Amino acid sequence: MSDPGRCGCEVSVERGRLVVEPGGCGGALASVPGCRATAVHTLAGRDASAVVVRGEGRLGPRGVALLVAAGRFRSLLDGREPRLAALAGRDPLVAARKASSRGGWLSALAAESGLALAAEGVAGYGVLEPER
């Protein structure tokens, strides 16, 4: 799938795993919002048991949980909040805080999707660095 965030990374789903081809996006998921957006967009409406960055390694459980939950959150928004859905791709930690702080149905979706829990206590995108 080509990258809607224009970073050049490519992603695919193989045997239930999200596979990231970083291309010209060194440190792709941790440092390039466009690559995160591509991964989250691909995960909208589906789960992945693992996330593998070719040539770099696998993400740890917290990183996988964050991306899967962001994809689920994006899917649950279902066009009702396009700006927040886009933010969930590029910056799921901020999207989780915004949705939770707005209360009501957005906060409920953040909880239902697992995004609020996955983002809890995560200070930055180091969780998206592959473990070797």
SSE layout and pairing:
Blueprint: E1 10-14, E2 17-21, H1 28-31, H2 33-43, E3 50-53, E4 57-58, H3 61-77, H4 82-90, H5 92-102, H6 104-113, H7 115-119
Parallel strand pairs: 2-3
Antiparallel strand pairs: 1-2, 3-4
Helix pairs in contact: 2-3, 2-4, 3-4, 3-6, 4-5, 5-6
Could you explain how this protein is built, in words?
This protein is of the alpha+beta class and about 130 residues long. The protein has one domain. Helices cover about 50% and strands about 10% of the residues. It has a four-stranded mixed sheet, with helices on one face. The longest helix is centred in the middle third of the chain and has 17 residues, at about 60-75.
List the defining traits of the structure above.
132 residues, alpha+beta, 4-stranded mixed β-sheet
Summarize the structure.
The protein is α+β, with helices and mostly antiparallel strands and 132 residues long. It has helices spanning 28-31, 33-43, 61-77, 82-90, 92-102, 104-113, 115-119, and strands at residues 10-14, 17-21, 50-53, 57-58.
Spatial extent as radius of gyration: 13 Å
From the N-terminal CA to the C-terminal CA, the straight-line distance is 25 Å
By helix and strand content, what is the structural category? Answer: alpha+beta
What global shape is seen? globular
Task: Give me the count of strands.
Answer: 4
Determine the strand fraction and express it as a percent band: 5-15%
Count of DSSP-assigned helices: 7
Adjacency order of strands in the biggest sheet = 1-2-3-4
Count of domain modules:
1
Q: Mind summarizing the main beta sheet? A: 4 strands, mixed
Mean pLDDT: 89
Portion of residues within helices: 40-55%
Poorly predicted segments: 1-5
List SSEs in N-to-C order.
EEHHEEHHHHH
